[in-house]
Here is the input.
Amino acid sequence: MSLAILNARILDPASQTDAPGGIFIDKGKIREVRTGTKVSFPDAKETIDAGGLCLAPGLIDLRAKTGEPGEEHKETLATASRAALSGGITSFVVMPDTRPVIDDVALVQFIAERGRETAFARVYPAGGLTIGLGGEAMAEIGMMAEAGAVMFTNGDWPVASAQVMKRAMTYAASRGAIVMSRPDDRTLSGNGVMNAGEFAARHGLSGIPVEAEWLGAMRDVTLAEQTGCTLILDQVTTQRTLDIADIAKGRGAKVFTTVAAHSLFFNELDIGDYLTYCKVNPPFRTEQMRKTLVSALQEGAINAVVSAHDPQPPEEKRLPLGEAAFGAAGLETVLPCLMTLVAEGELSLLEALAPVTIGPASILGLPQGRLAEGAPADLILFDPGKPWLCDRDHLLSRSKNSPFDGRRLQGRVIRTFVGGKTVFERQDA
Amino acid sequence: MAAAHADYTFRHEHLLGIEGLHLLDISHILDLADTYAEATRAGKRPDPILTGRTVVNLFFENSTRTMSSFEIAARRLGADVVSMPVANSSVKKGETLIDTAMTLNAMKPDVLVVRHSASGGAKLLSRKVDCAVVNAGDGTHEHPTQGLLDTLTIRRVKGRIEGLKVVICGDIAHSRVARSTTMALHLMGARVHLCGPRTLIPPGTDTWGAESAGTDFNAVLPGADVVMMLRLQLERMNGSFLPSQREYFHYFGLTADRLALARPDAIVMHPGPMNRGVEIESSIADGERSVITEQVEMGVAVREAVLHLLAGGRA
Here is the structure.
């Protein structure tokens, strides 16, 4: 079944294309991308007139949590997939911090299988780096990688022991596996609930200092350099952390950095009157730090923007800030968050899309994330300037804990394709 | 008795490691061991050249196999043998290695055979006593008689050492066998390749004489004349150095399929004791290409030769 999408604005960060044109799809793959105002593909069985909408690769998210298995009331792979597709995300990596933890070959196979059976988006399992994420015994990295785990991480629970981390990274490197680590020295960040500083102090809240991130990053990039392991520094929040990564890269370390989309949008003041939906880890930092992150993104210094999707039901969030769970639902707001920055003139469309398409695709070595002949036809049609009001009740995620609730955003996905098939179409558009 | 060269004499006071031995020393020990092995096979009792000599086995770590091997070797040559498994005795409590050595030294033994958990333990002892010291394994450093018996076993089966490709697979980092055997085989002209999980491969194995140290067992096996599997200590499994027994066997276990990658006449060795199903399949360990029991047999012969050279006058 062949399909042509015509009259679109082609946006492809991989080839730096931003031009009117059309695309021809056959057997689930992109067969031809043509730019120009009078493109047509007469051979196509079906033709879609994009009406001038933007056509870009579907987004790739390196960090989403669901509740499957074990906490399906928070989110399943199916509900996460639905939310993701409505937000333009066509591929996502699920974190291993579930119940049970994904630290075993059979569980990796379970996630991959459930993803294929119940989700229309492409679901990639991340394996636990240590057994039970306990930080003590390394998990079966080699066999899980063979079973389809695309990376290994301790999720929200960074490995405390440098010795365990070094051995795990040494072993992972020898099997060609990628390790993702949250740069966070928990012996310093301890019981902090928000960014350390004047605001936290005035509100009587314990802080998570930026030094904890820097110390964690310094350890992990040093080990990456020494072991030869490919490292993803997960959810960086400061320029200095990027600098730490750059120094290691200069010494030959294979280090990539990611930023959570919401960290590009919010600052610590958004916690306001103890709003638990803004309680995330790493925390929202100062406005100045947020601005430097956006500049870094604009300069291409950040490899990937992630949703950091962490669904939490009301019982985990309707609590005093100190007791509430960390985490924000994020799958549906990555693209709008980036498009709002575009609308504010902070980023160009291609700069905004690169870290959610070709950036993550290159880290994992995936064929999608680009509009190229032979690539899977994972695509989105979207209106980058469409204003909308984020209302948590209208979110498709099973958990509604979005810090964007009540915010005005710009940019909406109109139609999403995976493997050339329409898997989401916005009805109210 | 066979002598390697007419103008050669074994000049070492102790046997602390393969490091420090000359190629001629090794050839000489192997030649002598060969004659002892042949004598034993022929049912002949060797000359009791250690009559009146006292050999003390001082084992700070449990090892029934090695201690018995030394004991049998010494008895065959007529020595008086005292075996002290210190690991289980009250000597261990409160007394340092040196205190124990000084006490034993005062009893005037001729040879002290020592096993100790600390690398350098045998060397330290040798500085404090007046008799010959044989290192029967010091920590993760050396186990010279094992290196010699492995070399002898290979030489007897293959008829030579020079030019053979030997693959040693397992926990290289913590193995005193890997160090001693690699050095001995390298001196004798073999090409030794080490293999194991990256976490268990130490830096600088080229200085031992290893040609390579990698993590891909399948890739290194083609052309191998000898495949030697090392014992994986249980405490190294289950997460600290590697994920699990299952994953270890998946990548490093010696199976029939893997052995088929080596030369058709390749032999299989293991210093023992084996973890069947962890580093080696039972059918391989017991199969016709396994020379594991020959290794044990050559262990006695090599130890007879070593005791002979250190305490029995010139061979």
User: Anything to note?
Assistant: Chain B has eleven helices and nine strands.
